[in-house]
Write a structure and sequence with these properties.
4 domains, five-stranded mixed β-sheet, alpha/beta, Rossmann fold
Length: 671
């Protein structure tokens, strides 16, 4: 048998080629790094001394400089062979090497040398070499960084560029307006270098520019930002103190750093932190694009107002205890609520063991029920206090059997206004309501500001419109059976008819687009200003069945329209964005109104086929004849088309001036 020790030696020798290859690969890397530092030293010396030939002091300083470079590189580990390293790990190596090198230089000069050296050259050469290392690393690994960013983005490249640009602009303003570039001395130069190094070091320590994930908590992100700025201010205060900058400049410089921190925080909040998703499903306003409002199919309602009570499909004996328990136990103190429920629901058809009555805002109290277990669910806590209303509705939908009844309540904006009027004197009531409306109605709808609102209020006592409250029910698979205002709250009875919609929450865009039928049946999108509350598009069938169409082919007393929306409609301002359709050629100036396919299906087939032969118009015959019913609207369009077939140009001119006269001269307003 061979000697085990001899075998081990053979194995070690067998690995030596790989070891030699690694050493060979490291030598060019170390030499290249050395050249960077020597170049940086000569560059700073040339800038300061206006010569590239080192004098005696700096030739004697060169061994100290090289020793600092070597110790910094060894301790930081940047000379080690690694096939790949992340940018954060590399930054860690660079700033560790820089701090160690500065420390070694300071120690050796103070202890063993009395050389007359410029602090700008000493500190600046080491700092600029570190920056060159970072730039070269990013350039060399740019493709890999881009690919890694596509796979898993954990570092933002845009944010630091924006932030360093802001810092540079603020410093430029300081030196240009207050100090003067001609007054920049060595201390100010070191101060500038220290500022950028403090920025870089603080960013690394706090992970300032790591990308936020959807799970990032906003308060944590804000806390991280504040730590970043406080660390910069603390470091700069220390540097200013060490350099013994003049007191007037010292205060001015720190003030500028604080101003930078404030502006940087605002910009980063609006660009990044403000976009973090909140634990709420409130609709946010989107100003950047037109949201498509889809029109549901109008169909006959299975349950109309003439029916007395809603019955569950299952049948139970007439002595079901549900009615007795609700009346004499659960709603003993609330007879009005019981009468409302009993008026619209046949309680004898529901099982008491599958009935639940709660007063809770905690969704956990609902999640404990099995799927499709309950037949009747009643929650007396108002929806305004529930942070994620859609999630709550979805859970209720889950626990109810098909056809199961859901009773709840919320305070609509109109009744909220009445509450203020009844509680306070007139002027105070309107003032407080205005503040309440801005804070609890407008803020939750606006980007960034909504984050502040939900951080401070947790969504408690949110202002909801009647359309939004009911629209969310339809969005989550319910159908409203009845409504009633009791003690300023809107109580509703709804039944489960479908599974919830899992589409993204509706946008509350200023401009909306609606799918309409153009010439030859071609689908087109027409643009309008939004005039309705959020979720209103899910209530079209509800409004149609309970209100019907009246004057002008419009819904009667459409509660979905906002107050400012009524103003826009009254003066036809909401149709101004349709000018874009006119420019695109989808419509012409005068012509029949562009309608949805659902509305067109209300017309007889012969007229519908004829209508397809014409391009819709921005100004329809409606503005001329002002019809008050669907039949009159159709007749108005037929009259226009008959005249248009005989004289296209002349008819459009006449209709244009008649419409102009109605709107501007006679001040006829839209219903």
């Amino acid at each position: 048998m061979g000697n085990p020790l001899q075998s081990a030696s053979i194995l070690e020798l067998g690995e030596s080629p790989g070891l030699s290859r690694r050493i060979t690969l490291r030598i060019p890397k170390i030499l290249g790094n050395l050249l960077i530092y020597l170049f940086s030293l000569v560059l700073l010396y040339g800038i300061k001394k206006h010569s590239l030939i080192l004098d005696v002091n700096y030739l004697l300083f060169l061994p100290i400089y090289l020793a600092a470079w070597l110790v910094g590189g060894i301790i930081s580990g940047k000379f080690r062979f690694r096939r790949s390293v992340s940018i954060l790990s590399y930054l860690n190596q660079i700033y560790t090497s820089l701090l160690v090198s500065l420390g070694v230089v300071a120690f050796l000069i103070n202890e063993y040398s009395s050389l007359n050296l410029s602090r700008l050259i000493v500190i600046g050469s080491l700092s600029s070499a570190s920056l060159i290392e970072i730039v070269l690393y990013i350039y060399k690994n740019r493709i890999q960084l881009i690919e890694n960013g596509k796979e898993k983005t954990n570092f933002s490249f845009t944010a630091p560029i924006i932030d360093i640009s802001l810092l540079t602009w603020v410093l430029f303003f300081l030196y240009n307006s207050k100090i003067g570039f001609g007054n920049i001395d060595e201390n100010h130069s070191i101060l500038l270098i220290g500022t950028y190094l403090s920025w870089l070091l603080s960013a690394f320590i706090t992970h300032q520019f790591s990308t936020y994930t959807p799970n990032t908590i906003v308060w944590n992100a804000i806390s991280l930002q504040l730590k970043f700025y406080l660390l910069i201010i603390a470091m700069m205060s220390f540097i200013v103190y060490i350099l013994q900058i003049d007191s007037s400049y010292r205060l001015l410089y720190l003030t500028v750093i604080i101003i930078y921190s404030a502006w940087s925080f605002i910009i980063m909040f609006f660009l990044y932190i403000g976009k973090l998703p909140q634990k709420t499903d409130d609709v946010t306003t989107d100003f950047m694009h037109a949201f498509e409002v889809k029109t549901p199919t109008l169909k006959a309602h299975e349950l109309n107002q003439t029916e007395t009570k809603y019955k569950l499909f299952k049948a139970y004996p007439n002595n079901s205890p549900v009615q007795q328990k609700l009346e004499f136990i659960y709603f003993k103190e609330y007879p009005d609520i019981f009468n409302f429920i009993e008026r619209r629901i046949d309680l004898t058809t529901f099982d008491m063991d599958k009935t639940s009555v709660l007063r809770t805002r905690d969704i956990y109290n609902i999640q404990v029920f099995p799927d499709e277990f309950l037949e009747l669910f009643i929650n007396l806590h108002k929806l305004n206090d529930i942070r994620r209303i859609n999630e709550y509705f979805i859970e209720v939908n889950r626990i109810l059997c098909t056809g199961g009844a859901f009773v709840g309540n919320f305070e609509p904006i109109k009744n909220r206004y009445e509450r203020f009027r009844n509680k306070f004197p007139f002027i105070l009531a309107h003032t407080l309501y205005l503040i309440d409306f801005i804070w609890k109605r407008i803020f939750p709808k606006l980007p960034v500001l909504r984050n502040l609102y939900f951080l401070l209020t947790k969504g408690n006592d949110r202002a909801l419109s009647l359309a939004e409250g009911l629209g969310r029910l339809y969005y989550c698979g319910f159908e409203v059976i009845d409504l009633k205002i009791i003690n300023n709250l809107c109580y509703f009875v709804a039944r489960k008819v479908d599974r919830p919609s899992f589409n993204s929450n509706p946008s509350f865009s200023v401009i909306i687009k609606l799918l309409r039928t153009g010439r030859n049946g071609k689908p087109i999108y027409v643009y309008k200003l939004r005039t309705m509350h959020p979720y209103s598009e899910f209530l079209q069938e509800f409004v149609y069945n309970y209100s019907g169409l009246v004057k002008g082919d419009k819904f009667d007393n459409d509660f979905r329209v906002t107050t400012w929306g009524s103003f826009l409609r009254r003066y036809w301002i909401d149709e101004i964005p349709m000018l874009l359709n006119l420019i695109k050629g989808d419509i012409k100036l005068i012509g029949v109104r562009p309608l949805s396919q659902q509305k067109l299906n209300l017309y007889n087939e012969d007229y519908r086929k004829r209508r397809y032969n014409y391009k819709p118009g921005l100004i329809p015959p409606y503005y001329v004849d002002l019809p008050e019913s669907l039949d009159e609207t159709v007749q108005s369009e037929v009259n226009y088309l008959n005249k248009y077939d005989k004289n296209k140009f002349g008819t459009d001119i006449k209709y244009f001036f008649k419409a102009f006269n109605n709107i501007v001269i006679n001040k006829r307003r839209s219903a």
